[in-house]
What we know:
By secondary structure, the chain is α/β, with parallel strands linked by helices. It is 33% helix and 20% strand.
Amino acid sequence: HSPKRFKGVAILTMIDPAAAAEELRRAVTELGLVAAVTRQHVRDKNLDDPSFDVLWAEAERLNVPVCVHG
């Protein structure tokens, strides 16, 4: 246990980018998590697909990083 060193991050499912953005908002504002992690692609889309813009905008608004795990 070391709350100054270890912080929680949200694991986001990106099948529904709008829902992922809502979950990121909840995770940061209600649960106090400090970042998010997601996979490198979703079904047939890479993370640069415009459908994910809603999530990137929310992460920017919240000033939190999104980590990508392969």
